[in-house]
């Protein structure tokens, strides 16, 4: 595994992200997140409204979880990560979660099965599914509120999360 240090201007801290050697989508996302960090570094501190939201990111790829954690924390969210569907469901039961970002293709339990369990137990929680597949069947997406293709611009991912949280705050569940 390789790591790449990221630091914000005026800060002495850095973050090393694990990146798998041949994973082009991770490299693309890392570049987009670096750009997002540069663009938003002057907006710190974030408002308290977004800091009160907790996101749960479920993906079997640790590098994607690390990228999501960085991206959403930079945008003021509290982020929990899980590397499997069962782990994500355990975290969901142990903490207050405002929104779930979920991968489709995972071992043990696919994202549509995880989404169905979340929807049956917590119908109020918005679910955003991501996948490298561009043409998932409608049946797979029936329990999710939004779907994005992995590798889309990070701004699009953050905007979709904000929109889903706003919709939930306004009382529109789905």
Give structural notes.
With 174 residues, this protein is α/β, with parallel strands linked by helices. It is 41% helix and 20% strand. The chain is built from six helices and seven strands. It has helices at 24-40, 48-51, 62-74, 85-94, 111-121, 154-169, and strands spanning 2-6, 15-19, 54-58, 78-82, 99-103, 127-131, 146-149. A five-stranded parallel β-sheet has the order 4-3-5-6-7, with helices on both faces. α1 packs parallel to α3 and α4 (85-94) runs parallel beside α5. The longest helix is centred in the N-terminal third of the chain and has 17 residues, at 24-40.
Summarize the structure.
The chain is of the alpha/beta class and 174 residues long. Helix content is 41%, strand content 20%.
List the topology elements:
Layout: E1 2-6, E2 15-19, H1 24-40, H2 48-51, E3 54-58, H3 62-74, E4 78-82, H4 85-94, E5 99-103, H5 111-121, E6 127-131, E7 146-149, H6 154-169
Parallel strand pairs: 3-4, 3-5, 5-6, 6-7
Antiparallel strand pairs: 1-2
Helix pairs in contact: 1-3, 4-5
Strand order of the largest sheet: 4-3-5-6-7
Which segments are poorly predicted (pLDDT under 50) over 5 or more consecutive residues?
1-22, 41-50
How many individual helices? 6
Assess the beta-strand content as a share of residues. Answer: 15-25%
The profile of the biggest β sheet is: 5 strands, parallel
Task: Give the integer mean of the pLDDT values.
Answer: 80
Taken in chain order, the helices and strands follow as EEHHEHEHEHEEH
Radius of gyration: 16 Å
* SSE class: alpha/beta
Shape: globular
| Percent of residues in helices | 40-55%
Intertermini distance: 40 Å
């Amino acid at each position: 595994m390789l790591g790449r240090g990221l630091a914000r201007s005026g800060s002495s801290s850095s973050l090393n992200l694990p990146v798998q050697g041949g994973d082009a989508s991770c490299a693309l996302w890392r570049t987009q997140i670096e750009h997002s960090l540069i663009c938003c570094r002057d907006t710190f501190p974030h408002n308290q409204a977004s800091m009160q939201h907790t996101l749960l990111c479920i993906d079997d790829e640790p590098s994607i979880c690390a990228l999501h954690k960085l991206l959403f924390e930079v945008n003021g969210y509290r982020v929990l990560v899980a590397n499997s569907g069962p782990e994500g469901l355990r975290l969901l039961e142990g903490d207050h979660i405002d929104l779930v970002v979920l991968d489709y293709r995972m071992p043990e339990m696919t994202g549509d099965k995880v989404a169905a369990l979340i929807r049956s137990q917590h119908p109020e929680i918005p679910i955003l599914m991501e996948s490298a597949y561009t043409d998932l069947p409608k049946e797979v997406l029936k329990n999710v509120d939004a779907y994005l293709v992995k590798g889309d611009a990070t701004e699009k991912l953050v905007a979709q999360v904000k929109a889903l949280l706003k919709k939930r705050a306004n009382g529109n569940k789905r």
